[in-house]
Specification:
A 3-stranded antiparallel beta sheet has the order 1-3-2. A two-stranded antiparallel sheet has the order 4-5. It is mainly alpha-helical. It starts with a helix and ends in a 10-residue tail after the last helix. Helix 2 crosses helix 7 and helix 18 runs parallel beside helix 21. The relative contact order is 0.05. Strand 6 and strand 7 form a beta hairpin. The N terminus is likely disordered.
Length: 493
């Protein structure tokens, strides 16, 4: 035995029953103040393989017990801790996020945090940079250094040397090992090279044992297979044990067909939608087809239309119902308006026949609106693309008005005013009624919306002011002023 091993044996108490014949040290615990690289008493592991040897030594020695220092969390340095350490050994630099380890190892974030704390308290990890959790900023993960505790070197007789006297103590490197620790080091090397799997839960073990007791068959190589087309060296032919039912039983339906049937829950190879799926489908279609719902949240619209979706309504049924309620021109909050319009809809159109009638009415209204638009476009095309154009001179327009008034008078039976009020060659038109004046004002307003002032300018200013009013006259003057500007364009071409 070397001098280092002899001195270690003198300092250590008598061995007690331990795993892998490891000499037990009094205690293995690193307080929080010493869990930094600059304050750690251990040395940095040069690679993950040697660090995993130290991890397996701590796990087998039993020197560190978490319940000595805290009342919650894991009870011991167990397989899950080794599993977390095995994942850390693959990282370079060792800067893991808690969410990454939880997703990678299929553990909870609290479990990962507990086992990282165990590794720090056992002297196997040391902070290089501690992560930050600042509100409003991205979270930064902690960076660790893989450490080998000094207790490991003492127990196995590992000799270390500081190659650079100006370097810190944690840069010590191993330069030899005592003969007494070589056998244990070989066992730790075998464990470090072996991959640790996630331990199975107790419930899964109970289920597997229960299945074995009930005679669940498992595939074992070398046994006779259940199909005659086997490839193996089994001496017993499996073809003699196969059984095919008679054809008459297959035809009558008494025996099960070997061809698997499609599940009744699937339609067209896809799973049948449940209630929530139908709601989201209807909400998505409403957002896509209704202009005043564009940009609304699909989950919110699905929740608003949940009653009609549960009643089996389609997007066509909803559009027919909205047509019955009335069209909207200005919408401030689409989901709120939809909630008001759909209130009680499933109780009014409670049968498929009523919904079909509403759809027919809606489609008829759509067809009528389409024909009206076609007629408007045709009339506008004939008006602006025809051969005749209205006169631009006011004198000519007055003569045209007089001619039209003469025609209207002839059509009404030749009614005229008193002869004293009529000059030679002048024809006066009859006074228009209030309904005709209202129709003229509506027509003029429609032309102004399209950027046209023909109807208003076809009359002289005094008559136009008396017929159309000051508001429409001011609007016509504004449009004509804007039409003369090079920055604006009016018209249909």
């Amino acid at each position: 035995m070397s001098a280092v091993a002899v001195s270690a044996a003198v300092l250590l108490p008598g061995p007690r029953p331990a795993v892998d014949d490891v000499a037990v040290l009094p205690v293995l615990f690193v307080p929080e103040a010493c869990q930094w690289l600059s304050t750690s008493s251990g040395r940095v592991a040069l690679e993950g393989y040697s660090w995993m040897q130290a991890v397996h030594w701590v796990a087998g020695s039993g020197l560190y017990k978490p319940r000595r220092y805290r009342s919650h969390g894991p009870r011991a340095f167990g397989p899950t801790t080794v599993l977390v350490a095995q994942e850390l050994a693959l990282l370079s630099p060792c800067r893991p996020g808690v969410e990454y380890l939880a997703r990678r190892l299929k553990l909870s974030e609290r479990t990962v945090q507990n086992h990282l704390q165990i590794l720090r308290e056992a002297g196997l990890l040391a902070y290089v940079v501690r992560g930050t959790r600042i509100r409003g900023a991205a979270a930064q993960a902690s960076e660790f250094a893989l450490m080998i505790p000094v207790e490991f070197d003492v127990a196995l007789g590992v000799r270390t040397v500081l190659r650079d006297e100006t370097a810190p103590e944690y840069t010590r490197a191993a330069c030899g090992i005592a003969e007494a620790g070589r056998e244990l080091m070989a066992k730790l090397a075998t464990k470090a090279a072996r991959k640790v799997r996630k331990p199975r839960s107790k419930t899964s073990g109970k289920r597997s044992r229960k299945g074995a007791q009930q005679g669940v068959a498992t595939g074992v190589s070398g046994e006779a297979r259940c199909t005659p087309m086997q490839v193996g060296t089994s001496a017993v032919s499996s073809a003699g044990g196969t059984y095919s039912p008679p054809e008459e039983k297959l035809a009558s339906g008494e025996a099960k067909s070997p061809t698997p049937k499609k599940s009744a829950k699937r339609a067209g190879g896809r799973r049948k939608q449940n209630k929530v799926g139908r709601r989201f489908q209807l909400g998505r279609e409403l957002v896509q087809e209704l202009d005043w719902l564009r940009g609304c949240s699909v989950p919110r619209i699905s929740w608003v239309a949940r009653d009609v979706a549960d009643a089996g309504w389609t997007v066509t049924d909803v559009r027919a119902w909205l047509h019955m309620r009335g069209e909207v021109t200005r919408v401030r909050r689409g989901s709120g308006l939809l909630a008001v319009l759909l209130a009680g809809a499933e109780t009014v159109l409670d049968t498929p026949a009523k919904r079909a009638d509403a759809i027919e009415q809606w489609r008829g209204a759509q067809e009528a609106a389409r024909r009206h638009r076609i007629e408007q476009v045709r009339a506008r095309t004939e008006r602006y693309d025809g051969d005749w154009t209205g006169p631009t001179s006011r004198a000519v327009r007055r003569e045209v008005e007089a001619a039209f008034a003469q025609v209207r008078e002839a059509a009404t039976g030749g009614r005229r005013q008193e002869a004293g009020d009529i000059t030679d060659g002048q024809v006066l038109a009859p006074e228009p009624s209030e309904q005709e004046l209202a129709e003229l004002r509506a027509a003029a307003a429609g032309e102004l919306m399209g950027g046209e002032t023909t109807l208003i300018r076809s009359l002289d200013p005094e008559t136009a002011l008396a017929v159309f009013g000051a508001r429409l006259m001011a609007r016509a003057a504004q449009l004509e002023a804007c039409a003369r500007s090079s920055l604006m364009t009016y018209g249909h071409r």
